[in-house]
Amino acid sequence: MHSSRENPVIVLDGPAGAGKSSVAREVSRRLGLPFLDTGAIYRAITLVMLRKGIPPADSDRLRGALEGFKISFSDTRVFVAGEDVTDAIRTPEIDANVSPYSALPAVRNALLGFQRSRKEFGLVAEGRDMGTVVFPNADLKIFLTASPEQRARRRCDERAAKGEPSDYDETLRRVMERDGIDSTRDTAPLKPAEDAVGLDTTEMTFEEVVNAIMRYAEKLPKITRVT
Q1: Measuring CA to CA, how many Å separate 82 from each of 70, 77, 86?
Q2: pLDDT of 130 strictly over 90
Q3: What number is the average pLDDT over the span 201-212?
Q4: What letters, b where the CB count within 10 A reaches 16 and e where it falls short, cover 6-29?
Q5: pLDDT at residue 189, rounded to an integer
């Protein structure tokens, strides 16, 4: 059963560094829909597991930690058990470790119900398996991609803007390594849904990407732009 057109579900999937989070956030703002940052959720879980010293393997310790995991959002901030972890989940250490945790069936299954429960009032969601697993009946599915080199450059630019050091070659290596893990994992591998619209953003500006998605979104019945 498809979601209500009054409360549409729009999903953006794609590999690391394709610009999903920032684009999805802006699309949600323009459409006046809630934004679901699933990447932040998996990053927050990774942060918690690393802090607790729990390795990325299905274990009693990991499942126990998942049962006590509490995440919340406020504007652009991310909180775990009341702690603001917005900056802590956007580090090279999290980049290097998030895929092994995200690939675990125990982790993905634990979050499935939480993610689906957020669609009551419509939403814009980004991730790796939004259109294939979490919201297979979404009203609009977009698959964003870009060359590994461009995605690595974007990551380095993001860190430079924050005054953080970054190494392009190492960033590129990690981007390509994560592509391999995400696309070959057994549970919810990274791949476009059969009915997804593909959008290569390698040569596109942020505004061009947002506008392209808005053109598709505005074709949905009863979708209006929020100014």
Answers
A1: 8, 11, 12
A2: yes
A3: 95
A4: eebbbbbbbbbbbbbbebbbbbbe
A5: 85
Residue written as token pair 């409360």: 7
Contacts of 51 (CB under 8 A, 6+ apart): none
Token look-up 């949905």 returns 220
Q: How many helices (H) and strands (E) does the chain have?
A: 8, 8
CA dist list (Å): 167 to 124, 134, 146? 32, 34, 19
Q: Which domains does the chain have, with CATH numbers?
A: 9-217 (3.40.50.300)
Q: Sign of torsion, CA 30 78 175 169?
A: positive
Residue 215 CB neighbour total at 10 angstroms = 9
Q: Is this prediction's pTM over 0.85?
A: no
- Residue 99: pLDDT band (50, 70, 90) is confident
Q: Which helix (H) or strand (E) holds 116?
A: helix 105-116
What pLDDT does 4 receive? Answer: 43
Measured at the CA of 217, the angle between CA 214 and CA 222, to 5 degrees, comes to: 125
